[in-house]
Amino acid sequence: xxLKSKLTLCNLKGxxxxxxxxxxxxxxxxxxxxxxxxxELSDAILDLLDNCLDGVVRxxxxxxxxxTSDYYVGxxxxxxxxxxxxxxxxxxxxxxxxxxxxxxxxxxxxxxxEAEDLPTVGIYGIGMKxxxxxxxxxxxxxxxxxxxxxxxxxxxxxxxxEDEWDFPMENLDSTDLLVDGGxxxxxxxxxxxxxxxxGTEDKLDVFVNGLIKSIQQSYSxxxxxxxxxxxxxxxxxxxxxxxxxxxxxxxxxxxxxxQQTFGDVHVSLAIGxxxxxxxxxxxxxxxxxxxxxxxxxxxxxxxxxVVLYNDKTHLTGWGEAGVPQYHTQFIGIRGIVIFESNNPKxxxxxxxxxxxxxxxxxxxxxKDRMRQGLKMFTDYTNRWKGRNDxxxxxxxxxxxxxxxxxxxSRDEIETLAPxxxxxxxxxxxxxxxxxxxxxxxxxxxxxFSRSIDEIKDIIEYLYDDREHSMTPSQVGExxxxxxxDKAHSKEGE
Length: 493
Known about the structure:
Shape: elongated
CATH topology of the largest domain: Heat Shock Protein 90
Number of domains: 3
Number of strands: 19
CATH class of the largest domain: Alpha Beta
Mean pLDDT: 84
Largest sheet: 8 strands, mixed
CATH superfamily of the largest domain: Histidine kinase-like ATPase, C-terminal domain
Structural class: alpha+beta
Strand content: 15-25%
């Protein structure tokens, strides 16, 4: 590689000399490499799905999706993956021709492009291009918008020509391609590392199964609202989020709710139990639980796109400001925060849309509320620790309700659920009155490990049980009770 320079004749004090300019334009190899290096393959594919959903939003302009349960009904995205090709096709309206000519295929969003004032998730204008170059070296993009059908070709040798950054564009006359309006992206010349990932049927199955899981986590809200996603003919089912709610007006199990608007960003939050708090036996043997730690934690949604799924770290308030770190005893706690805005730049998400921008002032304010709600339910769990049989009276009386009934207008929530919001510091909050034990003494969990053989010896000694049917927790409680009885007897002497 060599440095090109431009020469210009200049006259200074009668002396003619050659002025030199050093070129600052990036090479395509560097640009594409940097663009694709820091994004996982599955996340790149999710970017393509994001484009489909943004197309739906443009089609539905003027319709409030927060009040429309079937907002995405009738729209689809079908993905086909093989070792030699990747195809994604949708019926989400296609790319307007003038947008394709001026903006859609540029490497980054142009400042000349006006804000759309729509609740999309596209911010930087790199998603489609990054995904294409992540997967392969060439592609053809077919799109039909308002009866205008055309294709844009990304040639295999495009990266070799440093002077030509544009892509060939051609009008088409076909009547049977994308008849309902939409886009089809056909990627070929699969990059060697990607081809290796999909190289055998077994490897491809592993990748597809992982991709399905990612889609389920990231698009559950959208799928529940009617959007259809298929991969290699397999339709993807959502992973709905539900919380426990007792419809009695008295003290009972209900979620903590919060809503507030920051400028053009509206925030809705709900946290509570999705399942009863676990017993000590459950904690000892999480593998046999019908639920697992993967179901607990905070889910963050930006314009219907899940950017953080069931997080249990300091990013979402665990282990800071008086909130305990996540432990299996909190396995029944789940929360969700939904950010909505017609200006996606104000949403607290990273460029990959797979993480939270912790520098966001809006997120910092909301995180205080997240910790407030989180502490309420961790305190409840600690308060009832060791008294699970008594607690079940309350948690089993509550019904599992969809998050949709807890996220929306306050009037609708107060009508559907027995809650009453109060105004607080610019927002609206519902603080549930959770049940308390009659003897509300503080409890602490005692936990330690011993060898299996030693535990079996104790079981035989205490219970004369050679089948060793007692759990370690039961053994520990029995030992504690025996010593406690001796301590109380000594105090009475």
